[in-house]
Structure formats: C-alpha cells, structure tokens
Amino acid sequence: MNPNLKQGIFNFFKYGILAFLALIIIINLYLGINKGISNNPVPKFLGISPLIVLSGSMQPAIMPGDVVVIKEQAPDQYKLGDVATYLEGNTAFTHRLVAEENGLFVLKGDNNNVADDTIAAEKLIGKVILRVPKLGLAILYFKTLPGMLVLLFLLVLCIYGEDLWEKMCRQNR
After folding, report:
1. Which of 28, 138, 156, 158 has the most crowded CB, counting CB atoms within 10 A?
2. pLDDT tens by residue, 10-69
3. What ranges do the domains of the chain cover?
4. Does the 44-135 domain belong in CATH 3.40.630.190?
5. In what order do the strands lie in the sheet with 124-132?
6. Cα-flanking dihedrals φ and ψ of residue 91, to 5°?
7. How far are the Cα atoms of 21, 31, 157, 167, 171 from residue 10, in angstroms, in the given order?
C-alpha cells in the first residue's frame, strides 16, 4: 500500500476520533454547566435538548436507550399526535399527545395502558424532532468507570498512536 495513502487513512481516523472526543467533551461541559447554573433538569442550547430514554413507555416508536432531541416551541404549535416532553418534578416524560380536554393536553405513552394527567401546553418543554436509536446506551456506558477508561485509552491512542504505529512498522521491516 502506498505510504501516503496509509498516512492519510491513519490521519483520517486519528483526527476523526479526536474530533468526536472533543465534541463529546464540549457538549457535556456545556450541558453540565448549563444544568448547574440554571438548576434546570433539562438544559437546552438554542431551545434544543438531547434526552436519553430510560423506560419502555413509548415502545415501539421510541425504545429504551434511544436519544431523543426535543425543541422548544410555542404552546399553540402543539398538535394531537405530537410526541412531547414535560417535567414532573425533576423527571422528564416523553409521551404522545392523545387528546385535548378543556384546553389541556392528555399525554400517554404508546406502550402504557393508562394516560398521564392532563398538562397545559405551557408546561410542555419541547417536541421530539429527532430520535437516534441506541446512542443513549453508549452515552450511559461512557459515564461509567470502564467507559471513561475506554475514552482515556482512545485519547492516549490518538495522541501517541502515530509514534507507536511508526515503531511497529519499523520493527516489521
């Protein structure tokens, strides 16, 4: 294989992994600082917030471990059938708007037998605009000690990997 092509492929992966790690760090720092300053259990950036789904109440549309991205919107923009998020205490629930009674929305998880309490549209904190399957499982893993060690290993590999690669290539000649 052409040495320049090898180097190009190696650099692509090296800088791709570094960019991914930097993005994860920046997002976590922003959301963590935002949550700490505002005491808001659902921190937002430009009205958008990612949430990890932990329960199966919205199966099969949204599975546990999926990440949903919610976007703030005006109360009059919610419609029946939308999947929206609301807070009950410090816990966020993401369910479907199934009915409207006296100006209040009734929400229900697709997999639940019973509807939630009625919620005023002003209490909804956002509508689901995107679902990323299983990404939440990776995020939750990287919050554990083994996950942090994997991230640290990848960071060290990105920094010193090129030198290690060159040493291995020299030894194999």
Report:
1. 158
2. 788 878 888 887 887 787 777 778 777 877 778 787 889 899 999 999 999 999 999 999
3. 1-39+143-173, 44-135
4. no
5. 48-52, 67-71, 124-132, 83-88, 91-101, 104-108, 118-120
6. -105, 130
7. 17, 32, 12, 14, 18
CA distances from 162 to 11, 14, 42, 57, 173 (A): 9, 8, 40, 46, 17
Amino acid at 110: D
DSSP string, 23-63: HHHHHHHHHHHHHHHH--SS--BTTEEEEE--SSTTTTTS-
Helix (H, G, I), strand (E, B), or coil: what is residue 1?
A: coil
H or E stretch covering 116? none
- Please state whether the peptide bond connecting residue 64 to the residue before it is cis, i.e. omega within 30 degrees of 0: no
The pTM of the full predicted model, rounded to 2 decimals, is 0.74
Parallel/antiparallel/unpaired status of strands 67-71 and 124-132: antiparallel
Single out the residue of 47, 55, 50 nearest to residue 28, CA to CA. 50
**Confidence band for 173, pLDDT divided at 50, 70 and 90:** low
